[in-house]
């Protein structure tokens, strides 16, 4: 429902980028948590610390999930760009007209897309900077 | 490394704070023409969004990179510590496989990565030696690992960092970092049984049932409920890091533990004749 | 319009909206009265919790102090945190929003005034219950975070833990009710023309914070349920010996606990967002940026909870995700501050006491934010965690992000509420005392923390470098308290002697300042159409037109309380909503439900159950008499030739929205329970545990299948009932409802019979306990649905539910969708999961 491209901006289109972020965040957390909890040897097992469980599929899974999330955010941003009327003119979108309401929602969605984009990258970083389940 | 990270963050933070304060001061005191909407919007974009993002990204990458190093495995000595209300059960496993049980005091060889395996018996505690590194929680049903690599010798203080009940504030321990050779000598001494297994105090210790809870190796006392006391007098502190270690204090501790440590499992033995507790304390005070 | 007519209109409006005199005053439900009580009560709890903090500081002033014994000290700090967070920080947001939101929206009241009153009485009862316990030495003493197993062990913690769990659960329910009301208020009660892009920023914040409450509080309620079941019935959710895990509580608590920080922070920042443009004498720069920041913070704040658990031994990669989110959340927070700075730079600042507090909050909050960025880096947090460094950090963020903006807001909005301003002179003195005291108290704590002083210690030894730092902190705390005292005296005594404030004394641009001060009981004289973010600046004729009653709803001819309902995005008028008037029913319901919670804490189960049932009956009476009232006419001329319907149902009605939003919160609580189930799955190698014959434990397949089939049939019957009603067939409606009730009961019964006949013993292991909780939760929802359908049946028999007047059936079917979803997911998880292993 949220992801369908729409001509008219509304509160759902506004919430799409951060929703993608939240889903991606939850996905990364669950993938890593299940891998490390189910891998058997982990930080919490008294194994002399020589063998930390490997991350296994976590890295490729996170990479794929991140790619999908970034793609969705870009799609949302493109749609928001159209809603702004293809530019940043007429800021601050404060007239009580349907046009300005549409542009405002588009512009705010665009800003949220940027924040979500950066945050998705932030969230993906640990999977590439941390080597195992230590 | 963490210290350097802290100083970098502190200086950067101070600079950012000052910059924002000056900007706010300028904004409220300024008499000349206001900024244009365009330049103000640019301030939000660059000052509020882009710059923080770059700084935070750099900090994050550095911080994440640090984590695996700090959690690298230990290189030999392994110390199991179990948190109890309100003291620490400690068991060393030496690289050669021998093991050694003690309580409320941790001794470490300098320059080695010693590994702690942390558990809890009753409630959640947290093991923390502020001078040596980070803390790690001790959670019933789980075993956590912490690796510390002390760089200088000396005496330090460790504490319980997670609220664990009435006497949480009174759950500390003493720490001594020693040169590896001194450490080995200490281990050898500690592995030996009690120095003076007999005497009036020892007899009273058995007769009054102290041995049901406490172990003094070399005697019949082999209880496992309370702290091990074999070389009590050799420790830097008494009552889990809260009192000086001398016979008078031991006596007071035996008589008034319920006052000194609210919520402790050991009852106070004020009903025993003063001479008896003094004798027990004197004996315990001789166990080096 | 003649002066005479105008006076008559004002007289009628005044009479309709007046609060009754004498003891009946306490039956008032108008937002102005309830908002004032709410604010005063929350402020009283703030003072109470502050006194506790002073006792804590007095005890810590010198090493080895014996002013307060250990047990009492633990009660003090537990209650300090609990009261500050649950009885001050969140309620004051709701209180201020109930008070201010209608004025900003030119609404006469919020859409559910009796719900506000109910929420207030719940809050008062629960708060007094929790705080009062300290006078009986029975206060909770396990920390405001209540970590098990310390708090689940009845030998280690007494009745205090039950008081905490039940008292606060009760308040949380009230908080969710308030959140629902505020969200619907922002979405549906704006004045005509106030499109989503011209709402005051405060409304954006309220909308987002309301949404956050819906997603943050239910996990805690779910956690409370598990916790209380362990304490009262020994179901081992947090007992590792029987398959539980103490960390599950920490997850549930902090999934609530971290968003909570932003739930208290954002509404205070929202006050700054209203003030800064007023004193810069220009519209805010970067309105969209604020919206971005508020929404972004709202989302990101749900990805931070594990940073309270950095030292629990989770894998570094898990910590990494939360570390990253904790850094990312600083971005939108920084954006908000820069929006304020940019607006100040692009305007001409007028300095005033509110702006003084705002500047102080900036100085303090930026410091707290920067230490927040530091502790978000896990390796540094391992050092700082649970030390006084974190105490300093959290007080800097909440002091600078919540308390100082709130005081700024008090100086700014007191004239609006009381009609008289606070003292400028004393305001400055209070500010400097508070600002100096705050920094003297909390700045040294950074160093005590770095020197290794852990939190929550009732004493500390001398000579290890903590002595003088603690003494300085204590002095600062008392200095701060002196500032608060000055403010309090000025608020309750000084302000009475001051001259009345002129209208719009700060020359602001938003609607709350449109009328005379203080506003009469009915609020705004007539509801204008607005065409700007700052109507008072851009529509200079507006105050006069509003005051002369030239706009909508200038009269109350029928003697009913009325307010406007408009569409969500563009605020096009949709309905003239008649809101219910004063009543003791909300208070009565709160007393009954509160008594049943309190009784449970003291283990009077049967009387609690009886009182609880009485409370539910009272709520039914309240609904019957006060909601979905059939109007005497279909529509009404609200002025300027605009006719609006008086009764709308389905997605256009406020009740439908309230149900929809409430069910979001309900689903979040349910999702938390399901999370618990899968959490246990991840930590156990074998889950569900095996029976003696090697087969997995579980409720079997037969009875869950029966439950599933009857569930689907019950849902179908409900849909059919609604369809028959739309076709004007009361008989069909009643038959459908009856079938729905019978099938719902059958399904709920089968859900409970399944684990019973399979012999699942909830005390034996966390798995059967979780299965029982999930199935019980679903069955309870079906039972509630049956009650609702019975209510519809009775309404139909009383001719209060017909084809034209069908609010009830629409809302009940909406509930039915969610209850059916809950049941279906529960059955899938509990019955099908054992098959996979």
List the helices and strands and how they pair.
The complex is a heterotrimer of chains A (134), B (288) and C (837).
Chain A lengths: L10 H28 L19 H26 L14 H32 L5
Helix pairs in contact in A: 1-2, 1-3, 2-3
Chain B lengths: L1 H28 L7 H34 L7 E7 L2 E7 L5 E5 L1 E5 L4 E7 L4 E4 L7 E3 L5 E5 L5 E7 L11 E7 L1 H12 L8 H8 L39 H14 L13 H11 L4
Parallel strand pairs in B: 1-5, 4-10
Antiparallel strand pairs in B: 1-2, 2-3, 5-8, 6-7, 6-9, 9-10
Helix pairs in contact in B: 4-6, 5-6
Chain C lengths: L2 H15 L13 H30 L9 H35 L8 H20 L26 H30 L12 H33 L12 H35 L6 H14 L15 H13 L1 H16 L7 H23 L2 H7 L3 H31 L5 H27 L16 H26 L42 H4 L3 H6 L14 E5 L6 E6 L6 H17 L3 H22 L8 E3 L5 E3 L8 H30 L18 H25 L3 H28 L8 H32 L9 H30 L1
Helix pairs in contact in C: 2-3, 2-4, 2-15, 3-4, 3-5, 3-7, 4-5, 4-18, 5-6, 5-18, 5-20, 6-7, 6-8, 6-20, 7-10, 7-13, 8-10, 11-13, 11-14, 13-14, 14-15, 18-19, 20-23, 20-24, 21-22, 21-24, 22-23, 23-24
Which consecutive residue ranges of chain C, at least 5 long each, have pLDDT under 50? none
Uncertain runs of chain A with pLDDT below 50, 5 residues or more? 42-49
What is the number of helices of chain C?
24
Query: Hey, which two chains have the biggest interface?
Result: B-C, 78 and 80 residues
Question: Any guess at the CATH architecture of the domain at 650-836 in chain C?
Answer: Up-down Bundle
Give the overall average pLDDT of chain C: 95
Tell me what portion of residues of chain C adopts beta-strand conformation: under 5%
Spatial order of the strands in the main sheet of chain C? 1-2
State the helical fraction of chain C: 55-70%
The total of helices of chain A stands at 3
Structural class by helix and strand composition of chain C: mainly alpha
Give the biggest sheet of chain C. Answer: 2 strands, antiparallel
How many domains comprise the coordinates of chain A? 1
CATH topology of the domain at 650-836 in chain C: Four Helix Bundle (Hemerythrin (Met), subunit A)
CATH-level-4 superfamily name of the domain at 650-836 in chain C: Cytochrome c oxidase, subunit III, four-helix bundle
Number of strands of chain A: 0
Oligomer: heterotrimer
Summarize the structure.
Chain A has 134 residues and is mainly alpha-helical.
Walk me through the structure.
Chain C: One of its GO terms (molecular function) is metal ion binding. The complex is a heterotrimer of chains A (134), B (288) and C (837). Chain A contains 3 helices and no strands. Chain A has 134 residues and is mainly α. Chain A has one domain (11-129). By secondary structure, chain B is of the alpha+beta class. Chain B folds into 3 domains: 2-70; 78-191, Immunoglobulin-like; 200-284, Cupredoxins -  blue copper proteins (Immunoglobulin-like), CATH 2.60.40. Helices cover 37% and strands 20% of the residues of chain B. Chain B contains 6 helices and 10 strands; from the N terminus they run H-H-E-E-E-E-E-E-E-E-E-E-H-H-H-H. The model of chain B has no long low-confidence stretch (mean pLDDT 93). Among the domains of chain C are: 585-624; 650-836, Cytochrome c oxidase, subunit III, four-helix bundle (Four Helix Bundle (Hemerythrin (Met), subunit A)), CATH 1.20.120.80. Chain C is globular and about 85 Å long. Classes of the chains: A mainly alpha (134), B alpha+beta (288), C mainly alpha (837). Chains in contact: A-B, A-C, B-C. The interface between B and C is large, with 78 and 80 residues.
């Amino acid at each position: 429902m949220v992801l369908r491209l729409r001509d008219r901006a509304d509160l759902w289109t506004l919430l799409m980028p951060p929703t993608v972020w939240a889903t991606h965040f939850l996905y990364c957390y669950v993938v890593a948590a299940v891998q490390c909890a189910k891998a058997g040897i982990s930080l919490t097992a008294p194994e002399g610390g020589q063998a930390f469980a490997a991350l296994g599929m976590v890295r490729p899974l996170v990479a794929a999930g991140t790619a999908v999330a970034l793609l969705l955010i870009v799609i949302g941003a493109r749609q928001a760009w159209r809603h702004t009327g293809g530019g940043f003119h007429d800021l601050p979108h404060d007239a009580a007209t349907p046009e300005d309401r549409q542009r405002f929602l588009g512009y705010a969605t665009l800003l949220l897309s940027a924040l979500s984009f950066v945050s998705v990258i932030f969230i993906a970083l640990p999977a590439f900077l941390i080597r195992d389940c230590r | 490394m963490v210290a350097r990270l802290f100083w970098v963050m502190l200086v950067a933070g101070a600079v950012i704070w000052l910059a924002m304060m000056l900007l706010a001061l300028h904004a409220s005191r300024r008499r000349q023409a206001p900024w244009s909407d365009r330049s103000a919007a640019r301030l939000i974009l660059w000052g509020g969004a882009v710059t923080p993002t770059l700084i935070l990204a750099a900090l994050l990458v550095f911080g994440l990179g640090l984590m695996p190093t700090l959690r690298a495995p230990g290189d030999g000595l392994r110390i199991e510590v179990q948190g109890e209300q309100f003291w620490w059960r400690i068991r060393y496993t030496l690289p050669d496989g021998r093991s050694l049980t003690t309580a409320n005091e941790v001794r470490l060889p300098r320059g080695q990565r010693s590994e702690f395996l942390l558990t809890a018996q009753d409630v959640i505690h947290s093991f923390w030696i502020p001078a040596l590194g980070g803390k790690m929680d001790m959670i019933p049903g789980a075993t956590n690992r912490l690796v510390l690599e002390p760089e200088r010798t000396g005496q330090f203080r460790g504490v319980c960092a997670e609220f664990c009940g009435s006497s949480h504030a009174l759950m500390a321990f003493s720490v001594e970092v020693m040169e590896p050779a001194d450490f080995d000598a200490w281990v050898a001494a500690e592995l030996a049984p009690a120095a003076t297994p007999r005497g009036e105090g020892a007899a009273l210790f058995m007769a009054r049932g102290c041995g049901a809870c406490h172990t003094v190796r070399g005697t019949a006392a082999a209880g496992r409920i309370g702290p091990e006391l074999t070389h009590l007098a050799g420790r830097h502190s008494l009552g889990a890091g809260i009192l000086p270690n001398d016979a008078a204090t031991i006596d007071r501790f035996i008589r008034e533990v319920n006052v000194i440590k609210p919520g402790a499992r050991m009852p106070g033995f004020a009903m025993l004749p003063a001479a008896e507790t003094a004798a027990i304390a004197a004996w315990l005070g001789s166990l080096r | 319009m003649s002066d005479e007519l105008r006076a008559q209109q004002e007289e009628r409006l005044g009479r309709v909206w007046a609060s009754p005199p004498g003891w009946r005053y306490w039956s008032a439900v108008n937002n102005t009265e309830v908002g004032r009580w709410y604010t005063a009560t929350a402020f009283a709890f703030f003072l109470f919790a502050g006194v506790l903090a002073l006792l804590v500081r007095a005890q810590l002033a010198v090493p080895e102090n014996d002013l307060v014994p250990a047990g009492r000290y633990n009660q003090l700090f537990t209650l300090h945190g609990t009261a500050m967070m649950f009885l001050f920080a969140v309620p004051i947001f709701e209180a201020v929003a109930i008070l201010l939101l209608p004025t900003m929206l030119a609404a006469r009241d919020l859409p559910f005034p009796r719900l506000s009153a109910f929420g207030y009485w719940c809050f008062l009862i629960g708060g007094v219950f929790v705080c009062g316990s300290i006078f009986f030495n029975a206060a909770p003493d396990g920390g405001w975070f209540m970590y098990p197993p310390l708090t689940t062990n009845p030998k280690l913690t007494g009745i205090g833990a039950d008081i905490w769990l039940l008292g606060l659960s009760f308040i949380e329910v009230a908080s969710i009710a308030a959140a629902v009301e505020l969200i619907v208020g922002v979405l549906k009660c704006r004045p005509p023309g106030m499109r989503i892009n011209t709402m005051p920023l405060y409304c954006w914040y309220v909308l987002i914070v309301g949404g956050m409450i819906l997603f943050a509080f239910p996990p805690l309620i779910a956690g409370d349920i598990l916790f209380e079941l362990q304490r009262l019935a020994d179901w081992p959710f947090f007992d590792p010996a029987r398959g539980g895990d103490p960390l599950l509580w920490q997850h549930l608590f902090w999934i609530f606990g971290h968003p909570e920080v932003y739930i208290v922070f954002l509404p205070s920042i929202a006050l700054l967002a209203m003030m800064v443009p007023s004193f810069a004498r220009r519209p805010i720069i970067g309105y969209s940026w604020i919206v971005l920041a508020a929404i972004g913070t709202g989302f990101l704040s749900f990805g931070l909870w594990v940073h309270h658990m950095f030292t629990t031994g989770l894998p570094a990669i898990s910590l990494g995700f939360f570390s990253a989110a904790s850094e990312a959340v600083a971005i939108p927070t920084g954006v908000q501050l820069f929006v304020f700075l940019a607006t100040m730079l692009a305007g001409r600042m007028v300095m005033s006491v509110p702006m003084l507090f705002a500047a102080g909050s900036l100085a303090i909050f930026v410091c707290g934010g920067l230490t927040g960025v530091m502790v978000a880096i896990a390796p540094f947090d391992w050092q700082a965690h649970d030390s006084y460094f974190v105490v300093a950090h959290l007080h800097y963020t909440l002091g600078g992000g919540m308390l100082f903006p709130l005081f700024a807001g008090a100086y700014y909005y007191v004239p609006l509420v009381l009609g008289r301003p606070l003292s400028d002179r004393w305001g400055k003195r209070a500010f400097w005392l508070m600002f100096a005291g705050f920094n003297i108290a909390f700045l040294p704590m950074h160093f005590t923390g770095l020197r290794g002083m852990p939190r929550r210690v009732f004493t500390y030894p001398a000579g290890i470098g903590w002595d003088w730092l603690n003494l300085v902190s204590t002095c600062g705390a008392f200095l701060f308290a002196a500032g608060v005292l000055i403010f309090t005296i000025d608020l309750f005594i000084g302000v009475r002697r001051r001259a009345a404030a002129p209208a719009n004394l700060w020359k602001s641009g938003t609607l709350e300042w449109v009328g005379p001060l203080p506003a009469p009981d009915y609020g705004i004289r007539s509801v204008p159409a607005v065409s700007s973010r700052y109507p008072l600046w851009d529509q200079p004729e507006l105050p006069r037109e509003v005051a002369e009653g030239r706009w909508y709803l200038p009269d109350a001819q029928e003697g009913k309380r009325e307010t406007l309902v408009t569409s969500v995005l563009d605020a096009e008028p949709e309905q003239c909503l008649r809101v219910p008037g004063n009543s003791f029913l909300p208070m009565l319901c709160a007393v009954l439900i509160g008594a049943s919670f309190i009784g449970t804490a003291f283990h009077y189960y049967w009387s609690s159950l009886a009182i609880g049932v009485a409370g539910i009956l009272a709520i039914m009476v309240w609904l019957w008499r006060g909601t979905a009232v059939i109007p005497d006419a279909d529509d009404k001329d609200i002025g300027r030739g605009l006719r609006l319907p008086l009764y709308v149902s389905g997605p256009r009605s406020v009740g439908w929205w309230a149900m929809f939003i409430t069910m979001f919160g309900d689903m979040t609580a349910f999702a938390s329970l399901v999370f618990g189930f899968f959490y246990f799955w991840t930590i156990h190698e074998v889950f569900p545990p095996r029976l003696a014959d090697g087969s997995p434990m579980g409720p079997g397949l037969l009875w869950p299948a029966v439950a599933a089939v009857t569930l689907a049939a019950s849902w179908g019957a409900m849909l059919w009932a609604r369809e028959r009603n739309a076709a004007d067939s009361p008989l069909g409606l009643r038959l459908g409802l009856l079938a729905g009730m019978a099938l719902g009961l059958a399904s709920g019964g089968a859900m409970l019979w399944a684990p019973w006949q399979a012999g699942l013993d909830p005390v034996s292991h966390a798995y059967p306990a979780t299965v029982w909780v999930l199935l019980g939760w679903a069955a309870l929802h079906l039972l509630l649905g049956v009650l609702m359908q019975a209510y519809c049946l009775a309404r139909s028999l009383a001719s209060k539910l017909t084809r034209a007047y069908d609010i009830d059936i629409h809302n009940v079917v909406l509930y039915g969708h969610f209850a059916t979803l809950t049941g279906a997911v529960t059955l899938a998880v509990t019955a099908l999961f054992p098959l996979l292993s």
